[in-house]
Each structure stands twice: as C-alpha cells, then as structure tokens.
Design a protein that fits this description.
The chain is of the alpha+beta class. The protein has a domain at about 1-170 and about 420-434: ATPase, nucleotide binding domain (Nucleotidyltransferase, domain 5). It is about 35% helix and about 25% strand. The protein has helices spanning about 60-70, 100-120, 150-160, 170-180, 230-245, 265-270, 280-295, 300-310, 315-325, 350-355, 360-375, 395-405, 420-434; strands at about 1-5, 10-15, 25, 30, 35, 40, 40-45, 60, 75-80, 90-95, 95-100, 130-135, 165-170, 190-195, 200-205, 220-225, 250-255, 260, 330-340, 340-350, 385-390, 410. The strands form 7 sheets. Strands 1, 2, 3, 6, 12 and 13 form a 6-stranded mixed sheet that branches. The protein has a 5-stranded mixed sheet with strand order 16-15-14-21-22, sandwiched between helices. The chain is globular and about 75 Å long.
C-alpha cells in the first residue's frame, strides 16, 4: 500500500494506492456527509479539554464546527502552511500552551494518517510510516525570497512528529500530472497548472505509455515553474479593494490639529487570514480605541474592533470565499456579513473582481510564459493543458490559458484530489524501486 499526502494551505488530502493499481482518496466526516478533503484548520476551545484540563487540538471540520457553535472562547488557526518560509514565526501560545509551527502542521498530517489507517489503508492494519508528500515548485517568502531548503526542513520535521518515518517530496504539479496521465492511451506533452491556496505551480511533462520506457521517471519532466500567489491572494484582493473600507481603510482621524490616515499596515494584516489574529494584541487594540475616539468614521473602527475582539476572522473568510465562488458562475453577487453588531452588504461584479486580481493574473501569465521560454517549448507543441486546484475554476484564470493555447486544448478535473492521487502513484515508483 502506497500513500501520498497533499498538505495544503486550505485543504489537505491523502491518497492510497492498493494492490490493484487504483487510488482512493480517504474520506473525512463533514456536516453535509463525507468529504475527500480535510480542512487545514485547527481550533482550541476551553470546553474541549484533555484529561489534564488543557484544551485539546481540534482538526478540520471538527475545528470549524466547534468554532461556529462556540461561545467565542475558541482560537481558530488557518493558512499556517504560509508560515513555512517565515524565519520570524516559530510558534504560537494558545491558552498558556505553546505549539511550534511544525507541531501545528503535524496535527493535520497525523489526522490524515490516522484516517487512512482507520479506513484500512495499510495492509493487515499496519501503520502508514512512509509517504510521498506534495510541495510547491517554489517556497516563496512574503519578501519574495526563495526559502526552499528552510521550508522543506520544517515540513520534514512536521511529518516526523506526525509519525511518518520516511517522507519523499514531489512537486505538486508533477503529482497532478500523474493523476491526469491515468486517462491517456497515447503520448502527450502536457502543461499542468495547479492552483492551490498559497501557490500557483506549473510543470511541462511528457506523459503517456511512452513514459514507462524511460530510464528514470523524472526524465519526462521538461520544466517547472511557480509563483507564490493563488486562491488566498484572490481573497486578499477582495478584502483590500472591496471590503476593508467598511472597517476604516482610507479614512482619517484627528491627532491634535492634524488629520492622519488610519495606519495602512493594519489592513495589510486584516486582508491575510493567518495575520488577523496578530491584530488582537493589547497595544494594537489600545491604539485602535484611541483612533476611534478621533476618527471621521468611528463606527467603522468599531466594526474592526468587534471583528478582532470577537474572533470573527473565519466568518469574514467564509463570506469572501462565497463571493469568489459565486463570481465563478455569475456576473455579479453580493458580499454579505452579518455578525454581532456588524452589518455589511456590498454588490460585487465579476468585472470588479477581475480588475482587482489583474496584477496577480499578470504574474501567473508571466510565469507560464517564462516556463515556455526557458524550456524552448513553443505553445503549439503543447498537446494539452490540464488545470486543477480550486482557483482553476475562476473564469479569468482559465482565459489566460485559452488565449495562449486555445480553449479546445484545455481540460480539468480532480480540483481538490488530483495532487493527493498523483502522489500515491508516485509513491509506488519511489518506494517500490527502493
């Protein structure tokens, strides 16, 4: 039995390859039934404690349900994969207990492993102790610096804490390529585009029956590329350009006889899900209270304070995500946020959204063009473009590839499970050979 783990910024999954050569993705309990993915989210709630009276970690859908049903005394952590490149963030103290980033990641990975074992994922009930795990093509820090070695070291440590004795890493778009290849009966040159929560990754690969005749599987890889933005970046644009104004962005307050802007750095953190919690420090809250007393729009600062103090970041995230999903199907929708004393409605059109994310789309398109140029691969040599990952469903993302390669060469599928499935296929190649 071979296993592949896709630990993602937003969702995670584990795929298992059985003796028949088929991959199944392990399901997880969800309020609506079963889900092929586990949300990469942790929660700590004072009402859910271990035998020592300490809040026990809750993972995935259980974490979300506890947060939504709780009384506000719950800490929710999300998008923490984004911290792998950070040399500043090493741990978080939650209810007087410190968790390192590696321990946080391990909690999600361990839950994936346990779910696979409970589902009979290992022959004879044996534990899963070696896996192939996904990684982006580039681990890019917020300052643009490549931090591959540093991030992989932390990720390897996290898998070890989760009980994985041996882990091999594979590029996520290569794993998605293995998933796509299962349906091929002829050789193709394929551009794989994998859009996750934190990164957009690309690979040029020769796939099909002929790949089996190569001396090494990696000889089929023509080239790879990636850029450190994707679904979370699109969410951030919605917050920055369409929502933050309701929470005081671009407003002023009086300081003596001067009119000063509300500090913009507040909204830099406000627009990043994994940074919102950092606004809840005593010094920041005192500063906001002082600003509110002298603000042109004190009610907007009050709403910002309510959101921070009442731990409503995930509610905001869900409302923004709903907008993004709706605009993948419709030309317009309404952002609606109605929690505690905050009541906001704001119509948003697809045209607005596409204008907001235009800088990100340009970087994605530039990355694809650079990959073609560095590998000296003309666009007309690409037989198929395989698009996967949640943000591949955004119409303006798909148009990048339709313009360059033609709509008829685009295909998609397995948006949330292609990487985990492909990693399981890759595990057979790596561990069976070893």
């Amino acid at each position: 039995m071979f296993a592949g783990i896709d630990f993602g910024t937003t969702n995670s999954a584990i795929g298992l390859l059985d003796s028949s050569g088929d991959v199944r993705v392990v399901s997880h309990h969800h309020p609506a039934g079963l889900s092929d993915t586990l949300r990469s989210i942790l929660a700590f709630d004072r009402h859910h404690c271990d035998a020592a009276g300490r809040p026990r970690p809750l993972v995935g859908h259980e974490a979300i349900a506890t947060y939504l049903e709780g009384d506000g005394d719950c800490r929710l952590l999300q998008s923490f994969k984004s911290y792998l490149t950070s040399r500043i963030f090493s741990s978080a103290t939650i209810f007087n207990r410190t968790y390192t980033l590696e321990q946080m990641i391990a909690l999600v990975v361990e839950r994936l492993r346990q779910a696979a074992e409970a589902a009979g994922g290992a022959a004879g009930g044996a534990a899963i102790r070696r896996v192939v795990a996904g990684r982006p093509v580039r681990f890019v820090a917020e300052d643009g610096k490549i931090e591959d070695d540093y991030a992989l070291t932390r990720l390897r440590q996290a898998f070890a804490i989760a009980g994985i004795d041996e882990v091999a890493f594979e590029y996520e778009p290569i794993a998605a390529a293995y998933y796509y290849e299962r349906g091929l009966d002829r050789d193709e040159t394929v551009l794989v585009a994998d859009f996750g929560g934190g990164t957009s990754d690309f690979s040029l690969v020769r796939l099909g029956p002929g790949r089996a005749r190569l001396n090494r599987p990696e000889d089929a890889i023509i080239g790879t590329g990636g850029v450190g933005l994707a679904g979370d970046s699109f969410d951030r644009r919605i917050v920055e350009c369409g929502i933050a104004e309701f929470f005081g962005k671009n407003t002023e307050f009086r300081s003596g006889d001067k009119a000063l802007p509300v500090p913009d750095w507040l909204y830099g953190k406000f627009s990043r899900w994994h940074h919102i919690a950092f606004l809840g420090t005593g010094s920041t809250l005192r500063m906001l209270r002082d600003i509110q007393r002298h603000a042109d729009h004190p009610e907007r600062i009050e709403d910002l304070l309510t959101l921070i103090e009442h731990n409503l970041g995930y509610h905001l995230y869900r409302a923004v995500e709903a907008v993004k999903l709706a605009l993948s199907q419709a030309e317009s929708t309404t952002f609606a946020f109605d929690y505690d004393s905050i009541h906001i409605e704001r119509p948003i059109t697809r045209a607005e959204f596409e204008n907001w994310i235009a800088p990100d789309l340009a970087k994605i398109e530039d990355c694809v063009e650079t990959l073609l140029q560095t590998t000296q691969t003309p666009a007309d040599r690409i037989d198929r473009v395989f698009l996967t990952g949640g943000s591949s469903l955004v119409p303006s993302v798909r148009r990048i590839f339709a313009r360059r390669f033609g709509q008829e060469r685009l295909s998609g599928g397995g948006e949330f499970v292609s990487v985990a499935s492909g990693l399981a296929y890759r595990a057979e190649e790596i561990f069976a050979a070893g």
